[in-house]
Design a protein that fits this description.
By secondary structure, the chain is α/β, with parallel strands linked by helices. The protein is built from 21 helices and 10 strands. The protein binds adenosine-5'-diphosphate and magnesium ion.
């Protein structure tokens, strides 16, 4: 090291463009700051060891309930095994005391051995049976674990699907999701840890009974002796959990980076734009900072564990000393003393088991609690809480936006301000405007994907806020601006299991969208898997995918058809087909069409022009091309580019 550097002033890089350690550290700090969520950390730091230790019984109950829900047989089996283990431990201990009593009593040694024989047989049988029960526990847990893990994952997916689309913009939502997801992943651990605690408790009950019979002072002493260790374990678990909270934002970003770097669709940018090496660098730095935080927590945890173990060792010595004193002062007989040694050993072992299992369980419990909290209301974003459950009596005729203002959470400005718009079945309304003018946002509001910040979106006079969202979307066909390439067959990609799934219905929709042209090139026609990630599958081009997404929308017999730049990726012929077919589609549908192809919007009954979130013009194609304004400016520009006007 040649120079000492203060934290506040990372030095400039001295050797050309290669960043040195210090500037790297500065950028790590920057990234830590970027992906940080203070609110969760504050909530987490309010947890105390005592409150969590008190929650242990409810955690055990909860994990048993979870296991019960997914596999009753295995749950009953496990509970029986644990109780059986406890009973056998008690029997074994009593037999040990009996054996010692028999062996040290007066009389002939052969006779004494014969007296002890039944007790010895009980010890052997109990040990054997306990081993058998242990194997059964491993087997049943192995059956339960994966089922439980997958069930937990599914509940997470359901909860996030049940959240508002706008949730992703809400502060802390993604972080809450990440932490909850971790909770879902560790759910099976909770069951296993509950097992350990239950088993240890059962054995402790046996040891405690025997100890109390032998001398009443031994048991309280034993508990006192184990307290410091318990406190240390729980504290160290808390440190590790808090480190998890603190790094959750960064870990979320790591997950995102992993996904994008490995994701086939981003492959081109990763390579040709050199995004890959750039992102790997970022991944390394972020990972290093998360590693450092986790390592520090592990170190602190280990120190606490060590302190606890030392305290525990001293306390155990005191217990053994007390036992010796009881024996030496004649307060306890020799046979009872021998039994007490075994009982103490068993009880100490099981108290340690309860403590370590309990501490692990408390930590897992924190995560599981986060998971369950997320399931309850999706971090306050559950649609069940923000929307009603009303159903429409019939497919709606009219879709209306009334005086709507919308601002995305955390955005500095409104994306839409005081917008009103109406589309009826049989009508085509075109929405035009420059990038960022609010077209997509308006279409999301009309579909009920977003709820307005101010104003109302009404479907036949029913507000989208009052309607059951899933029933509402039965009436929507959407061609989103950004669509997903799902690794499903063409058939499933079109129908998503809904509507008329017959070939005839699908082929009609394919004809309308132009997807029929690509069918001969697909190995198994409609049943071709649309991805090359699996053998036998085939990947489509961007434009072909757009045709497919259009097919999906045409196939749905929905009252509202919303198309957000549906022809952006289409060739001229395909685009022409779509615009030419719109009138036919509009017969029993209300169509909202967002497009930049201004010459094509002549088909629309009305054109609505958006600028900076406000409607600035509205009229027919004939009107808008005549009157001066934004539409005509954009329209003339486009015509000039395509050489229609000199
Ligand atoms: N998911 C989002 N979160 C936050 N802001 C958004 C989101 N989507 C769009 N916006 C903002 O809303 C404004 C309008 O966007 P959008 O409706 O997508 O415009 P258009 O479709 O007309 O290009 C833009 O300023 C954009 O930054
Ligand atoms: Mg858009």
């Amino acid at each position: 090291m040649t120079s000492a550097v203060t934290q506040d002033q990372p030095p400039q890089s001295r050797k050309g463009t290669v960043p040195d350690d210090d500037s790297q550290q500065a950028s790590v700090r920057e990234e830590e700051y970027l992906y940080r969520d203070e609110s969760r950390l504050q909530a987490g730091s309010q947890l105390t060891s005592r409150t969590m230790a008190r929650r242990l019984p409810s955690l055990v109950r909860r994990s048993v309930q979870m296991a019960w829900r997914v596999d009753r047989g295995a749950t009953i089996g496990l509970l029986v095994c644990q109780i059986g283990t406890g009973v056998l431990a008690a029997l074994g201990l009593l037999a040990v005391t009996g054996t010692i009593t028999a062996l040290i009593s007066a009389g002939d040694i052969t006779e004494r051995l014969w007296d002890a024989a039944p007790q010895l047989a009980v010890i052997a049988a109990a040990t054997g049976l306990r081993a058998l029960l242990g194997i059964t526990v491993v087997w049943l847990t192995g059956r339960l674990r994966p089922v439980l893990g997958r069930a937990a994952e599914l509940t997470m997916i359901e909860a996030s699907l049940g959240a508002e689309l706008a949730a992703n913009n809400r502060p802390g939502y993604n972080d809450a999701y990440d932490i909850a997801d971790r909770g879902a992943q560790v759910t099976p651990d909770l069951v296993e840890e509950a097992q350990d605690v239950l088993a240890a408790t059962a054995t402790l009950a046996a040891g405690a009974t025997v100890l109390t019979v032998l001398h009443p002072v031994l048991l309280p002493l034993l508990f006192l002796a184990c307290l410091p260790q318990a406190a240390a374990y729980v504290r160290s678990a808390r440190v590790i959990y808090l480190a998890g909270l603190e790094t959750s934002g960064r870990r979320w970003m790591l997950g995102k980076l992993r996904w994008h770097m490995a994701y086939q669709e981003s492959g081109e940018e990763m390579r040709a734009c050199l995004a890959g090496p750039f992102l790997i660098g970022r991944y390394r730095r972020l990972a290093a900072s998360v590693n450092a935080a986790e390592r520090e927590a592990a170190n602190t945890g280990a120190w606490m564990g060590l302190a606890g173990a030392v305290a525990g060792g001293i306390a155990s010595t005191a217990v053994w000393a007390a036992l010796l004193w009881l024996l030496a002062s004649g307060r306890m007989g020799l046979a009872a003393g021998g039994g007490a040694v075994f009982a103490l050993q068993t009880a100490t072992g099981s108290v340690r088991g309860i403590i370590s299992g309990g501490a692990r369980m408390v930590r897992t419990g924190w995560y599981v609690q986060d998971w369950q909290r997320f399931l309850d209301n999706a971090h306050g974003q559950a649609m069940a809480d923000s929307r009603g459950t009303a159903a429409l009596p019939a497919a709606p005729e009219c879709f209306e936006v009334r005086g709507v203002t919308y601002r995305y959470d955390g955005a500095p400005d409104n994306s839409l301000t005081d917008v009103s718009l109406r589309v009826k079945r049989g009508e085509i309304v075109a929405l035009v405007g420059e990038n960022g003018s609010g077209k997509t946002t308006l279409s999301r509001l009309l579909c009920g994907l977003l709820l307005p910040t101010e104003g109302e979106v009404a479907w036949d006079h029913a507000s989208t806020t009052d309607l059951d969202p899933w029933r509402l979307w039965e009436h929507v066909a959407l061609v989103p601006q950004k669509f997903t390439y799902l690794p499903l067959t063409m058939r499933d990609n079109i129908t998503f299991g809904q509507g008329d799934t017959s070939d005839a219905a699908l082929l009609a929709a394919c004809e309308a969208s132009g997807a029929a042209e690509m069918l001969p090139g697909l190995r198994s026609g409609l049943n071709t898997l649309l991805t090359s990630e699996w053998f036998g599958g085939q990947q489509l081009s961007g434009g072909q995918w757009q045709r497919l997404v259009l097919t999906r929308a045409f196939h749905r017999q929905a009252a509202l058809l919303v198309m957000d730049e549906p022809t952006a990726a289409l060739d001229a012929r395909a685009e022409h087909r779509i615009f030419a077919g719109l009138r036919e589609l509009a017969k029993d549908r209300a169509i909202l069409l967002i497009t930049h192809r201004l010459t094509n919007v002549a088909t629309a009954d009305r054109i609505v022009v958006l600028n900076e979130g406000r409607i600035v013009q509205e009229g027919t194609y004939a009107q808008l091309t005549q009157q001066p304004g934004l539409f005509r400016t954009l329209w003339e520009l486009q015509r000039r580019m395509s050489g229609d006007t000199p």
